[in-house]
């Protein structure tokens, strides 16, 4: 069977969950054979250990770090990757986008992928998270804007809010273990979208 579903893991959260999805589906030949997996992140080193078939590195040496990125320059970086996204989604029945909203990469690339996938005629689904309350209002606002745009393109959006994320982990565990518990639960939600 040829590829019919493309899954994009975008940004820190999206690429982490995509790796877990790939690990889980490796045991399932029929699912694996219809999937294309694409990890999109920055900086380049963040994709060194990615299990995805395609690593899309948003290259902008002067734009590294989480601080204030020149939005004009960042838009150029995004525009430079449009054709690559178009090429990957071409002919796909379904495109699934996984991203944590609130930072730069997920909040800007996820809407772009959803828009292009819809333009190319795919069914578009997304699994998104919104920031936890302590991450502050500016990340929250960025997430809301991204969510609005993704909602306007996608056929189905599953949003897990920051509060819901916190409830997914046991309250008495260390942070890395809490993220592991959360990521496993998000992975199960993506696997549901595939089957
Ligand atoms: N579940 C989960 N959430 C994460 C992980 N890493 C970051 N997050 C959360 O996901 C949201 C977005 O963060 P990232 O995915 O790191 O952001 P990004 O899209 O890479 O954005 P920039 O690094 O600013 O370019 C934030 O609310 C984080 O708290 C992870 O490994 N697992
Ligand atoms: Mg990041």
Automatic annotation (TrEMBL):
<keyword id="KW-0342">GTP-binding</keyword>
<protein>
    <submittedName>
        <fullName>Tubulin/FtsZ family, GTPase domain protein</fullName>
    </submittedName>
</protein>
<dbReference type="InterPro" id="IPR003008">
    <property type="entry name" value="Tubulin_FtsZ_GTPase"/>
</dbReference>
<dbReference type="InterPro" id="IPR045061">
    <property type="entry name" value="FtsZ/CetZ"/>
</dbReference>
<dbReference type="GO" id="GO:0032153">
    <property type="term" value="C:cell division site"/>
</dbReference>
<keyword id="KW-0547">Nucleotide-binding</keyword>
<dbReference type="GO" id="GO:0005525">
    <property type="term" value="F:GTP binding"/>
</dbReference>
<dbReference type="Pfam" id="PF00091">
    <property type="entry name" value="Tubulin"/>
</dbReference>
<dbReference type="GO" id="GO:0051301">
    <property type="term" value="P:cell division"/>
</dbReference>
<dbReference type="GO" id="GO:0005737">
    <property type="term" value="C:cytoplasm"/>
</dbReference>
<dbReference type="GO" id="GO:0003924">
    <property type="term" value="F:GTPase activity"/>
</dbReference>
<dbReference type="InterPro" id="IPR036525">
    <property type="entry name" value="Tubulin/FtsZ_GTPase_sf"/>
</dbReference>
